[in-house]
Amino acid sequence: MFETWLFYAFAAVLLVSGLLVITARNPVHGVLWLVLAFFTAAGIWLLLRAEFLAITLVVVYVGAVMVLFLFVVMMLDINIERVREGFWRNLPLALVVGGIMVLEMVAVLANRYHGAVPRDLPAGYSNTKALGRVLYTQYAFAFEIAAVLLLVAIIAAIALTLRRRKDSRYQDPSRQVKARREERVQLVSMKPEVDK
């Protein structure tokens, strides 16, 4: 009973935060509401005993992707008024896509209550182990392709945003390694001063 109430509480927070993501006036606030949505989705996955997916959602999306989104949103000079102009123009398409998603969720829930029965899992079953077995055997090739695509995207993002500034100071490790003691220390002979 407690898990049911906890599920409904997480679901309510997830719906509200998802709604605030698309209605937030400030893009930074929208990103922060999305972080809250990911956290509550991870809580729902914990209730469904999908611990690996929950921690992956927190580590990958909240820890990496959302921080990247936040930096991009804060670095770009976004014209908020121009972004808002496209809201009403794209609203019909958004309503159609949202309606299709609602119908799919209703079909899944109806099938759960009136059709399919979940199978009993054996003792000591680990969903993390089962997911790893499927991911690294049946989908190993697709997993490696996705990893290469992400690596290429990271390198492209670095190459596009890398700018050399002449006024910034930086260290050159190759010059530091080649340095000799004679170049660093210089002895100067001076005449001693005499007190008068």
Any overview of this molecule?
The N and C termini lie far apart (95 Å). This protein has eight helices and no strands. The longest helix has 35 residues, at 80-114. The radius of gyration is 28 Å and the shape is elongated. Helix 1 runs antiparallel to helix 2 and helix 2 (27-47) packs antiparallel against helix 3. It is mainly alpha-helical.
Name the structural class. mainly alpha
Low-pLDDT stretches are: none
* Strands, total number: 0
How far from one another are the termini? 95 Å
- CATH C-level name of the largest domain: Mainly Alpha
SSE arrangement, N to C: HHHHHHHH
What characteristic shape results from the CA principal axes?
elongated
Q: How many separate domains make up the residues? A: 3
> What is the strand content?
under 5%
Mean pLDDT: 81
Amount of helix = over 70%
The CATH level-2 architecture of the largest domain is identified as Up-down Bundle
Summarize the structure.
The chain has helices at 2-23, 27-47, 51-75, 80-114, 127-138, 140-161, 173-178, 181-184. The protein has 196 residues and is an all-alpha fold.
Tag the structure with descriptive keywords:
196 residues; mainly alpha; Four Helix Bundle (Hemerythrin (Met), subunit A); elongated
Layout of secondary structure:
Blueprint (H helix, E strand, L loop, with lengths): L1 H22 L3 H21 L3 H25 L4 H35 L12 H12 L1 H22 L11 H6 L2 H4 L12
Helix pairs in contact: 1-2, 2-3
